[in-house]
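Notes from hallway chat w/ T.B., transcribed later so I don't forget. T.B. wanted the structure written out for a chain they're using in a teaching module, and asked if we could keep both sequence and structure tokens in one place. Agreed to drop them here.
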Amino acid sequence: MSETRHDDAYEQGPVAALRRVAFLMERGREETRRVRAFRNAAATILPLSADEVAERVAAGTLTELSGIGPSTASVIEAAVRGEQPERLARLEAAYAGPLTQGGRALRAALRGDLHSHSDWSDGGSPIEEMAFTAIELGHEYLVLTDHSPRLTVANGLSAARLTKQLGVVDAINEHLAGSGFTLLKGIEVDILDDGGLDQTDEMLARLDLRVASVHSKLRQDASGMTARMLGAIRNPRTNVLGHCTGRMVMGNRGTRPSSEFDAKAVFEACAEHDVAVEINSRPERRDPPTRLIELARDLGCLFSIDSDSHAPGQLDFLDYGCERAEAAGLEPDRIVNTWPRERLLAWAAKDA
């Protein structure tokens, strides 16, 4: 599975052109506020008939619609005329194609992505937009893993909100029946100070897969952090240990050093309890560092290469993780999201 060019998206109409512009901007890590303008414009014209949009283009009244400005109007106008919008042409030239040179064979072997966020927590797009984009990228499955309640800064989901979200996922899958794609139910659950998981066991049991991550007290002493991580890894509900060091190596949020913990003990526990170590593909994270990927490899761990996407265009960040996994010599069968859906689900269920 890899990103394919859609230079002709405008031929599918203005909504497709606007979505493609937004996708490429996200892929290029452009400012979220600017990206949102194009997604909002697509939502504005989606309910309108092709004739009404064409009439507004002819009359020059597109910008009278709420959510349509000069930049988005120019994309719509060109697409209605059957022309490639200038902005889209520039973005295709800048951001289309593979994000990396390495990892191409491994990228093609990935069947899905186990870590993604929607606008139900701190993502920027609706669940259905994330699912549709995953389909366009050739995914067979995508696990929706919005945050758990304690992470209030990311609008984490209470048990009640998560219950409601599960119903939305069911409805989306019913709509997509026969497509060959499944949106899986998941969570990025906070690892609490005592090593517990930030959601009720009842709710965790209703999910297909669970990513457990530390988001707070990242500068905790090494012994405390190790005990905390071991507690989460030993919980039978945990499937994936997310961005284990919490580091940031670049980006608009600044940099952040790795948390301190006994990596050998943590990865030995992952191997023992059948928990996959996440290779987080966000370029600002590059988590774990290479030396820890190699240590986890040598200790017999499974891995998951995840995008940790917060927008549809970021689903393609998998390229970065695949390049790092290939450089570390990881065999595809040790990467759980190369597995068919049924094998993945059986593994994630463990003894539940």
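Follow-up for T.B.: The first strand starts at residue 112 and ends at 116. Might be a good example for the class.
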